[in-house]
Design brief:
There is one protein chain. With 130 residues, the protein is mainly alpha-helical. The chain has one domain. Helix 2 packs antiparallel against helix 4 and helix 4 packs antiparallel against helix 5. It is globular and about 40 Å long.
Length: 130
């Protein structure tokens, strides 16, 4: 089983365990490479259950490579925040704190907005859980 490199615009096939093809992996900043391996759980590609932290770091990696290749049509932070927004309802306070540690441009106020938004979504539009 294979899948396509996650770099925007790349169509190279890679093993399911790999995020990128080798050229794109080499473009990934070392700090983000380390975070990818730190958050990767063996077998997640087979179980289809990557951790939320892995998904955040994956978005950071895709944004970093796309920025280097000038393939991103928005600010990298906006790209990553859109990805976070998609998984926000499932994120715990610890996951949000992790985002703050790995994405240092986010302020504590930004992280609090994520928590409040997540909690409001959980309560429903009416604010009463319905």
């Amino acid at each position: 089983m294979t899948h396509v490199c996650h770099a925007i615009g790349c169509d190279k096939t890679v093993p399911p365990k790999k995020l990128f093809c080798l050229p794109h992996w080499r473009m990934t900043p070392a700090r983000i490479q380390a975070l990818i391996w730190e958050t990767y759980k063996p077998g997640q590609e087979n179980r289809k259950d990557p951790t939320l932290r892995y998904l955040v770091v994956q978005a950071m990696a895709v944004a970093a490579v796309a920025t280097k290749e000038k393939r991103l049509d928005e600010e990298p932070e906006k790209f990553v925040l859109r990805r976070i927004w998609q998984i926000l309802p499932r994120m715990t306070d610890d996951d949000i704190a992790f985002v703050g540690r790995v994405y240092p441009t986010l302020t504590e106020a930004d992280l609090e907005k994520l928590r409040v938004t997540r909690d409001n979504r959980a309560m429903g539009a009416g604010g009463d859980g319905t």
